[in-house]
Amino acid sequence: MADLSPKMRRGIGLLLILTALGLAAMLVLSALRDHVVFFYGPTDIQAKAKQGQIVRLGGLVVDDSIQKDQDGIRFQVTDQTTSIEVRYSGILPDLFREGQGVITEGRLDGDIFQADTVLAKHDETYMPAEVADLLKDQGVWKGQE
Amino acid sequence: MFDYLANPTRFRAITAVIFPVAVVMTVTAMCYGLYLAFFASPADYQQGETVRIMYIHVPAAWMALLAYLAMAVSAIFYLVWRHPLADIGARAMAVPGASFALITLLTGSFWGRPMWGTWWVWDARLTSMLILFFLYLGYIALADGFERPERGSKPASLLLIVGVINLPIIKFSVDWWNTLHQGSSVLRFGGPSIDPAMLLPLLIMALAMLGWFICISILRMNTLLAQRRLTALEIRGHSSQRGQA
């Protein structure tokens, strides 16, 4: 160390600090992996959630599953393997629709998920409405309705 | 090359050339970008007109990350090479950088309310972005928290470097964890998932904000340099008065 210039010593010191920090951050993040998630899919909820425990359930709203009655609304949320019926009475966000992503907070009551809040989650695709219509006309539409 | 740039007189000469170019770029890109964003670009097939918030929100978020990265690089130059100009650069970029982070948080909130149905959630993307804003505030407080500003430079630079760990967390939070915030649309594997008619205004607005950031940073660097010289002259004035007495 003695024959290194101060500049080199500071540089190496900084590099060591950064490496240690990077490692520490990686360890913390991997330890937190399960807790940082904002919501769980239907499969996880069915496997892990206790009855009455407040959790967030996220997934896609199943096509043709939305039913409205005087108690509110019910719909199926799926992760393509499992789906859970959700019941909710309250205001729905603009983007709530069949085939779209949704995140609901509430509790499991038997096999039914009683939601207190419903949030819409949209994907990262942006396109003009005309383009979407054109793709549907041409039959090459890959997205949701 | 850094030694060459680190001379304040030469720095002033170089920025005197860059500054007007940056001003022209900012004004042109801002006018064109805002016109595209609010009038000429199409509404989204899902979100309708609300999508226009993106043209402010996304470039501001990019700039918030870029400004922080630039400050952290300056901090490394300051800590290793001890160039005062690098420290002044980081200080100059802090306030515009913090503004970008704040704009990102506010516009995101205004966008989230109609689309998601909430102003705010504590998901990984939103929380890590809030932490970035606090890092900016922490840096500003630490750098300016001493009677002699140079004393704050070293701890504040270290804070900047430690905070760099937050940048990849913000960027990849939407890939690593389930979040309410959607994934990346532009910088992603498989190319952008955003229509060219909407990508163009986004990129023009990014250019405008980059230009604005460069202008403000140059102005602030020159102000801080003048301030340092003023303080140095004052100190010299005091000591020469004492010498006469």
Keywords:
heterodimer; A: 145 residues; alpha+beta; OB fold (Dihydrolipoamide Acetyltransferase, E2P); 33% helix; B: 245 residues; mainly alpha; globular
How are the secondary structure elements laid out?
The complex is a heterodimer of chains A (145) and B (245).
Chain A: H1 6-36, H2 42-48, E1 54-61, E2 67-69, E3 72-78, E4 83-88, E5 101-109, E6 112-121, H3 129-138
Parallel strand pairs in A: 4-6
Antiparallel strand pairs in A: 1-3, 1-5, 2-3, 3-4, 5-6
Chain B: H1 2-5, H2 8-40, H3 54-81, H4 84-115, H5 124-143, H6 150-163, H7 166-176, H8 196-244
Describe the structure.
The complex is a heterodimer of chains A (145) and B (245). With 145 residues, chain A is an alpha+beta fold. Chain A has helices at residues 6-36, 42-48, 129-138; strands at residues 54-61, 67-69, 72-78, 83-88, 101-109, 112-121. Chain A has a five-stranded mixed beta barrel with strand order 1-3-4-6-5. Chain B contains eight helices and no strands. In chain B, α5 runs antiparallel to α6 (150-163). Chain B is globular and about 75 Å long. Chain A binds chain B through residues 7, 10-11, 14, 17-18, 21-22, 25, 29, 33, 36-41, 58, 91-96, 100, 103, 117-133, and chain B through 42-47, 50-51, 54, 76, 79-81, 114-118, 121-124, 161-162, 164-165, 169, 176-180, 182-185, 188, 193-195, 197-198.
